[in-house]
Amino acid sequence: MDPIISDSLPASPLLRLPFEIRLMIYEYLLLPSTTPSAGDGTSVANLVPDSSFHTYYSDDTNNDPFTLSVRTIDPWMGSQGSRMWRRRSTFHIRTGPFLTTTTPTTYCVLLSPYTAHLRHTIPSLLPLCQQIQAEASKILYSNYNFSFHTSIEAIVPFLSDLTPTSRSHVRHLSLTKKALPYTKEFDRAEWSRVCDFLAAPQVSLQSLHLHVVAGKPDAGYQAIVPIEGRDFDVMLRLRKEWLGGGADTGGVDLEWVEQLLRIGGLREVRVRALVERCARAVSEKQAFWVAFSRGVVEGAFGEWVRGRMVGPV
Question: Of 253, 299, 251, whose CA–CA distance to 273 is shortest?
Fold first, then answer.
């Protein structure tokens, strides 16, 4: 059958509609529903990797209707899981009692009650043809905030699996920096890889939501000297000029901040502290973490980061 009819318009009824009408249809199908779904679709059991999308709701994963949470799948959750990974990139994560072994896994997208319909609309709409995919993908990927929490290792595989056009439409991303004293070398490597990927021209982020795990001792922050914005500049300068950008000293761990600052040209940067109770500092690294945490909680770190990351590339 000839795909072009006599009046030179595409044969598809959808593509024959005016572009403005098509956009309204895409928004209706892909944006969050005004009426959240209810039923067994919100069960935690849906985390078992039986498809590309999983419906799950919690304060941690879906903060608002425009959030799509992406998480690393537990490689031991469901023996049939690996058969469903063929269309998604796989990567290795540390497993075992002492995190001494690596196990292949992949990621999944957690849908909230406001986005449960995407389980059906995305595979039914985007693969129809290249034009529809190009038009609808912009609506999908530019409006949602893709939240990875601490699943840092899933960011690069998830974005790499998107087409170049879809990846260029991703505008909002959220991630969490783990507690500094408990960061391992493989965590540092994943963080560096993610920052390099997000700083590349292939990604055009406009907003970044950074959650930082902050430690607060039982006695509070009253006896802790706060770290202000100008202090971060001094510490980065000392690390670069005196230490040659090498290993941190005195417990000061800001290498991850230098890597984060590579992501430029953002319009919005939000920094939020995820406060956890911690014991009294008994090491230089813990002492710095507590002082740094106060700067995050009181907003000094967030204001300093915005001043360095928001603006032209």
Answer: 299
Rg (CA), the chain: 22
DSSP secondary structure letter of residue 112: P
Q: Are residues 53 and 181 in the same domain?
A: no
pLDDT of residue 11: 65
State the Cα–Cα distance between residues 33 and 76, nearest whole angstrom. 33
For helices 19-30 and 130-143, angle between their N-to-C axes, nearest 10 degrees: 50
Same domain, 128 and 182: no
Whole domain around residue 286: which residue ranges?
Answer: 173-200+209-313
Is the same domain home to 275 and 192?
A: yes
Question: Three-state DSSP class for 226?
Answer: coil
Each residue's pLDDT tens digit, 179-235? 999 899 999 999 999 999 999 999 999 999 999 999 999 999 999 998 998 999 998
Whether residues 119 and 139 fall in one domain:
yes
Task: Please say if the pLDDT value at position 250 is more than 60.
Answer: yes
Do 122 and 31 share a domain, yes or no?
A: yes
Those residues whose C-beta lies under 8 Å from the C-beta of residue 126, and which sit 6 or more positions away, are 132, 133, 136, 137, 140
H helix intervals, the chain: 19-30, 118-125, 130-143, 155-161, 164-169, 185-199, 229-241, 255-260, 284-297, 300-309
46 DSSP assignment: G
156 and 297 fall within a common domain:
no
Regarding whether 43 and 134 lie in a shared domain, the answer is yes
Tokens representing 184? Answer: 């391992």
pLDDT at 239: 80
Half-sphere exposure of 145 (CA within 13 A, CB side): 20
Which pLDDT score is estimated for 112?
87
The predicted pLDDT at position 247 comes to 53
Q: What is the mean pLDDT of residues 262-276?
A: 94
C-alpha to C-alpha distance for 242 and 190, rounded to whole angstroms: 26
